[in-house]
Write a structure and sequence with these properties.
Elements: H1 2-22, E1 36-41, E2 51-56, E3 61-63, H2 66-71, E4 79-85, E5 88-93, E6 98-102, E7 109-114, E8 119-124, E9 129-134, E10 139-144, E11 149-155, E12 163-166, E13 169-173, E14 187-192, E15 197-203, E16 208-213, E17 218-223, E18 234-239, E19 244-250, E20 259-263, E21 269-274, E22 276-281, E23 300-305, E24 312-316, E25 323-329, E26 335-343, E27 345-351
Antiparallel strand pairs: 1-2, 1-27, 2-3, 4-5, 5-6, 6-7, 8-9, 9-10, 10-11, 12-13, 13-14, 14-15, 16-17, 17-18, 18-19, 20-21, 21-22, 23-24, 24-25, 25-26
Amino acid sequence: MKRTILYIHLCILIFALLFSSCKPENNTTPQNLFTGVYIVNEGNFTWQNASISFYDFQNRQVKPDIYSAANESPLGDVAYSMTIINKKAYVVVNNSARIVVINPETAVKSGEITGFNSPRYLLRFSDSLAFVSDLYSPCIWIVNLHKGIISGKINLNKTAENLLLSDNTLFAANWSKLSTPLQNNNTVMLINITDLTLFKEIEVGTEPNSMVLDKLNRVWVLCSGGFTGNELPSLHCIDHASQQIIKSFVFPTRIPLPSKLCINSTADTLYYLYGDIYKMAIESPILPVNPFIEQNSRLFYGLSINPGNNDIYVSDALDYTQRGTIFRYSALGEAIDSFKAGINPGNFCFKGF
């Protein structure tokens, strides 16, 4: 009887070993990407070393360069931003003039969208349509996401950078004048979504580089003042209903240039880089005087707020040639942890929210 039981157990063990050894390997899903954040690493201009890192919230582990690991090929030259729409991730690769489409679960490439000059940001309009800004094209591209092609454009006579959608209006910040040197780059352009036409320009400060929408449906615009420091930086609040500036704040110094305006999940608190990280309530009558998180010897480069718990993510670009470091803080400004990303980590894309 004992021999019979032993024989049965031995047969089960052999069968299990044979079954496990015959299971096919799934080489198309090398990643296990749960809820977390993608870090968009620009790389160095013309070096073709852009990359995407992924930080897993569950086990606090970072996966470096997930695109190259999944596709055995480089991502391209200057990865600038990333957007997830309908279970697809769109990575805007600026100097490669394309948008790479990947599976956000596996990082495996499923296609690419071309025809741009120098794309910067992709903004979702619907599951089938998106808008794309371009550094060298005086228009906003309309992209058919189902077909993976450019299906049209909105003529602006100026280039667009940061994009924001509020109700039936598309706000586009004119940050650069590289392709239109005779025009001032100090406006936010308003486009009617119904007929896709530009109907108004609101003059703000020079080089508006980032915008957010607050809980009162007001658009906040951060302006650097110009790369050459020809004017003081400024922050403006536009009332959506009246389409007028209702608040303006001027920074005390030209340097450093403020950038990366963000807002928390309740849309009542602003964050931005001005060397250090500054925090400002939307009803504050003045700009904050003291930094919220000090830069110290670091070089803060990218900034974002986790929409799930309001943790603050900021990148240190170090010397722009080695892998940058990501620092994570609580909403109270308490240091949580840090980890390495790729070269020049400039943007973040949160997965699972």
